[in-house]
Amino acid sequence: MKRFAVLQLSGCAGCEVALLNAEAWVAQYKLVYMPLVVSAEDVPEVDVLLISGGVRTDEDLYKLRRAVKNAQQVVAVGTCAISGGVANLGDRDEVRALFLAERDRPHVPRLLSKSHPVDAFVAVDLYVPGCPPTAELFMAVLTNPRDFQASKVVCQECGRQKLKDVKPAHLLGFQQGEVLPDVCLINQGYLCVGSSTRGGCRAPCPRAGHPCVGCRGPSDVFIEKESDVWFKSIKRVFASMTDAPESEIEQGLRSPQLAMFLFQFSDYAGGDRLPRPKEKVL
Amino acid sequence: MPAATAFRGPKRKCCEMMTLTFPLSRIEGHARVVVDVRDGIVQSAKFQATEFRGFEYLVKGAPAGQMPVIVPRICGVCSTAHHVASVKALEDAYGITPPPLALTIRELLMLGQLLQNQATSLFIFTMPDRLGVDSIFDVNETELDGDALAGMAARALQVRQAGTHLITLAGGQFIHPVKAVVGGVTGGISAEAAAAMRSELADALLVACALFDAYWGYSLALSARLGTWGDDAPACYLTAVSGTRPNYYGDFLRLMGCEGGDVCAQFPACEYRVFLTVEEAEYSYAAQTSFQGHVLRANSLARANLVDSLGTPCANEYLQRFHREFGQPAHAILLYDLARGIELVYAIERAMEILAGPLEGAETRIPYTPRDGEGYGLVEAPRGPLIHHYRIENSLIAQAEFVIPTVHNVLAIERALRVAAERYITPDRANLELERAVGRVVRAFDPCIACATQH
Ligand code: SF4
Ligand code: SF4
After folding, report:
1. Does domain B55-452 correspond to CATH entry 1.10.287.3510?
2. Which residues of chain B are under the pLDDT cut of 50?
3. pTM of the entire structure?
4. Does A89 contact ligand 1 (Cβ within 6 A)?
5. Which domains does chain A have, with CATH numbers?
6. Cα–Cα distance between B272 and B403 in angstroms, integer?
7. A89 to B62: CB separation less than 8 angstroms, yes or no
8. Quick one: which H or E segment has residue A51?
9. Using 50, 70 and 90 to split pLDDT, how confident is the model at A267?
10. Which of A7, A20, A50, A131 is the pocket-test mutation for ligand 1 (most atoms within 8 Å of CB)?
């Protein structure tokens, strides 16, 4: 039986909770370390080590470095592990100053200056974006990532129809007003970025009537590129599918909730590192 | 079980200070317990949150309208509660009331949250303590009494999944849901989908009751073996539900004083500072709340003490039995876990009732105009009353405050830890049972550290 462990750094535990929903592993794999559900002191030898959360404290860093030594394969799951995640919303000077002030508390682990991606410190074999990744993605990681079948982008998994002749004059943002079933959310004026977001989640958000906010990150076409390549392309989608003024599109897309997800492979991971190869991304 | 490293220290001499550190597992987030002992006398027992999330800083400057998507990321275990509280805070600021159908669907969301959380806490976090194993996934390998335990992990996950499916149905996805939006919800629930969910819940109800009966029995056996149900000194209780057929969607906060009896104060979220004192602790990233100098308690036991009847058949029977056997108010901390089981059953039954009614066809959201100002959103999360408070300027969050249920329990956790420590530490020895006791005490309160460390 394959053995796996889950190391939870600074995150929300959503990734762990999603894994619990992939209950099929229970019969096939031995979970040897996952503080949320198993009492065990250290990560023992494992075939697969899943890491969630960003590296935010000196304790995170210590645990991370120890854990990878015992793992055959290291997988970064979720936006936080890949980019530092939602904590990067506060990656601004004034917020950073506040966080650094918090470092003075004695007796508790020291905060680092920001939430770092896991691969800033250790080599990662596989990246699984999503906030959190779905149960299906977790099962694919554990069984055989190469066999995982997914569409290139979320649009192909969403089932809503893009209408050529319906062009909203203005954007409604993310969530205002009625949502028609079956019709593409952009046709209805919503800021849906499913057209450039990598598939594999099966589009739960647009199916439920909420625009895709891009938590799976950029599709393969953009993943190794700078974020403004993605930005220009998504602007073109809105320019062709709506009659909204360019300034409105520009402003709408400059959104923190989109940025933290869509730039998880580029800017947010810390500009000067090499892009992560798309072959390593599930 | 991991051994507390401090026990391996050098032999204790007289007049010596000894610090015992207990790492914690099977709770949400990173925390540890530190007990200071001098000459065999417990000096202090501290609950330390060792991670810092700081969302009050992170969201400053975020567009107010994006909060319902951003703030669920505070915590993946209770993301639904944050999602709904956030939408309510914005609606309060904008001065709008969503249509009735939207409120019903949001109640369903909160029931899904309750079901998912209580199943996780009961079966995954605390059942192993009753069975003496490291994890529920080890149960199959142990040689405990056959039937009740056969396939326990799978059955526990089945119950838990009914909760996650309910959240998915009402919220779009079960972690970080999206369907609650300012002004209402993005859509109704079709009759077919509701019927399918009902039948899944009906199956889950049987399994949940069977597992809970077993759990109740193990808990009795545990307390008999230990000779205690843990810290049972009186405390004050805080919750946003009371009376009959509680609605976890939340309206007012209610306080029960240390003497028990009736609700001694009822107030809206915006007045919480009048009644509650919140203080920072320098040894932890989590703050602590008190009420007029008294220890405060929130979460399942607070609700079991303030709710008189649940109004659904099975859950109500359990609650009456609970009140009969342990009194109302009941104070012993291991009763938190039993109260959680009662709510698990309630969540299933109440959700089935709601799903039997029409959930589509009527209006699900109303138009609105965002405006600047201040708003409060209150829900009864599984861990107790959760408040989101936003000040909005130029459509951006100028200030956000998250009043977190776990923070209300911190002093109660520390008091209960001290009781346990005094029980197991004597001048000549520290009983190894202390380590297990520490785990049981903390898990009884089901703290959530990812939530508790925002400022
Ligand atoms: S990626 Fe999302 S779900 Fe996972 S830990 Fe981070 S915030 Fe939580
Ligand atoms: S843009 Fe959004 S709503 Fe439209 S098809 Fe793509 S994912 Fe679906």
Report:
1. no
2. 1-13
3. 0.92
4. no
5. 2-147 (3.40.50.700), 155-269 (no CATH)
6. 9
7. yes
8. strand A46-52
9. low
10. A131
